């Protein structure tokens, strides 16, 4: 049979690559005996693409760490899905035994607690190299010494112990250890908040540089918006278990829309002592075990209006969950 001519066929467009991380309607809850469950993450959807840095910001208690821990398989979700490179990740028990889990690496807040004080740092970094090999990732030949050099330390430091280093240096070691596992996604959970001011932007910039250079995505959690502005391509603002605004960093910075985002920006100290915007944020984040009715932010919102205590605004396509912007 004569084959059909194919030259007239319209080329099939190449589909956009699946996001590296895709979180859909995620709920994570904690249970305490005799108390209402705490929904620390109460329906979050979020994507991170390869080579992209997403900054997750919000006050203490908003659920940022809980979200990060769920993404890394350290906390089981109650509802919703987490997909990695297009494939849903399984329940926690399965994930713990899955060497593929090491494709996601986390850098924690506490540079003193996250490294084993009794082991030389070279040996701890070598664990990461072995983890990548165990899941069958082609080795790039990097040694612990090479990785230490990449984070600005010396190859000779591999023979030393964590307590011989400053907080900023330890965080660099933690980053080298995470990178050793050749992650596709790096998650930084407040990785700079325990560091002194001079080390903060250096460590944040280093994380961005190394993640992007290796084609990995970076989910960078911080309550320091000025640092997030420096390194993130996209910002997601979290309040009481929900994402309330998301968008390209420059856009959110130039035109913050959610009253909570505006208040966070207003709180950034400026050289002249004034905030960026004339807004203020009264009170604290409420207890997630008993969230306010309607919009969770309404009791603290400077522009709440009739109905905000009843209607719960969803994150719309424009990237903001606030009735001020409802169609
Ligand atoms: N193990 C736990 N058991 C019970 N409640 C918890 C637990 N961990 C966190 N929570 C609660 O869940 C909510 C969200 O906490 P989470 O640490 O995720 O927030 P966060 O935004 O990362 O804050 P921080 O920056 O202070 O870590 C808080 O109300 C917190 O008290």
Automatic annotation (TrEMBL):
ABC transporter domain segment(s): 21-265
Pfam families listed in its UniProt record: ABC_tran (PF00005), oligo_HPY (PF08352)
GO molecular function (one): ATP binding
Keyword line: ATP-binding, Nucleotide-binding, Transport
A single GO BP: transmembrane transport
InterPro entries, per the entry: AAA+_ATPase (IPR003593), ABC_transp_ATP-bind (IPR050319), ABC_transporter-like_ATP-bd (IPR003439), ABC_transporter-like_CS (IPR017871), Oligopep_ABC_C (IPR013563), P-loop_NTPase (IPR027417)
Domain of life where this protein originates: Bacteria
PANTHER family cross-referenced by the UniProt entry: D,D-DIPEPTIDE TRANSPORT ATP-BINDING PROTEIN DDPF-RELATED (PTHR43776:SF7), TRANSPORT ATP-BINDING PROTEIN (PTHR43776)
Similarity remark: Belongs to the ABC transporter superfamily.
NCBIfam families membership: oligo_HPY (TIGR01727)
Protein's name according to its UniProt entry: ABC transporter ATP-binding protein
Organism of derivation: Streptomyces liangshanensis
Taxonomic lineage from the root: Bacteria, Bacillati, Actinomycetota, Actinomycetes, Kitasatosporales
